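ok so i was messing around last nite and threw this chain in just to see what happens. nothing serious, just curious
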Amino acid sequence: MLRPVAKWSPLAITVFAMCTSFATYFGMYAFRKPFTVAAYESATAIGAVVDFKIAIVIAQVLGYATSKFIGIKVISELRPGVRFRMLVGLVGLAWLALLGFALCKDASWSLLFLFLNGLPLGMVWGLVFSYLEGRKTTELLGAALCTSFIVASGVVKSVGAWLIQDQGLSEYWMPFATGAVFLPGLILGGWLMEKIPPPSKEDIAMRTQRAPMTKAERRAFFQKYAPGLLALIFCYVGITIYRDFRDNFALELWTNLGYGDAPSVFTLAELPIAVLTLVMLALTMFVRKNRTAFLLYLWLILAGSLIVGGSTIAFQAGVLPGAWWMILIGAGLYIIYIPYNAILFERLIAALGSVANVGFLMYLADAWGYAGSVLTLLYRNFGQGKLSWLNFFIKMSYAVSLVCCAATMIAIVYFYRKIKQVPVLGAA
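result:
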């Protein structure tokens, strides 16, 4: 008979946690991203002024952003006993919204159902990461979790494109059907995550205790480190807008580059990026000192910002082919994006010696990031409607590179000074 997971070796528990969290979050993407691979060319514009696809992407992102604002409170105050039931309920609501999207014939109802689809999904990350934070192997666990959404974003789009192109499914039923394909794996992964034991005494000694935060505690923590946190959030807002645009309009970008008829490109282009980020984060697990690791992440984020800008210059100069440019900017953006979603705030809390949780900081950043994404889509439709998807994205690449470089340099200077004032305790 199989021993309880809590009695397994630390290595076995780590592998188990990596696999279960990967499967769970991978499955969530099947409910969030497949609709973006459809062009909806036959749909009429909303109010005759907003492109239908831009409108439904805005609707979903607005729901997702709203969820992040709600999550600042809900996820930061989350207690372990309700996590699995909450996960199943949230995903179930998102799936029902996709059914409504498939059945409705009115464009206005399509907006409502995509908003309702995004609304519950925004809290899934916080639920999943709450099983992983505060451990000495959180870098490795976070790498697996983040690899899931890099790979899943491409895989679910490839499945969605296959359902439309090879199986003859309509663009409206495809998102619901894609969700059905991945739902069993998501539920199994979530149920198995419940078996992951809590952080050990050694974990707590190395990474500080993680506990629910009250409103007063959240306010006090933010006010204490406001300048540095604002710089980090500003950088994250920029890269979230960039990443979300690249993800939602991958079909249009790849089509502009001449790869629109190859569904596999969505998956194949993301695989080397997933491997790179997994190896990068896994290696930082061996940096024991939290303050050293945190500052190392900031320098990596700066490097990622330079890759985005530098590869775009090379692409425009004709030195870099379009496919390699998409891969390199993907690598650059995920070198920035992944630390935020996996370990940056984890190491910051530990380096500062604070009793807090990653959920609060992550949802604070995420909320403004996705709000910025909505504003960018509105600007694209009303302010830059005549500009091609590719040219708009090129301009965005330069802007994000500059913003992230500047914000990260401010954060490096601020937190270097702050962390030096914290007494060195354990692995701090």
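not much to say yet. Residues 389-420 form the longest helix (32 residues).
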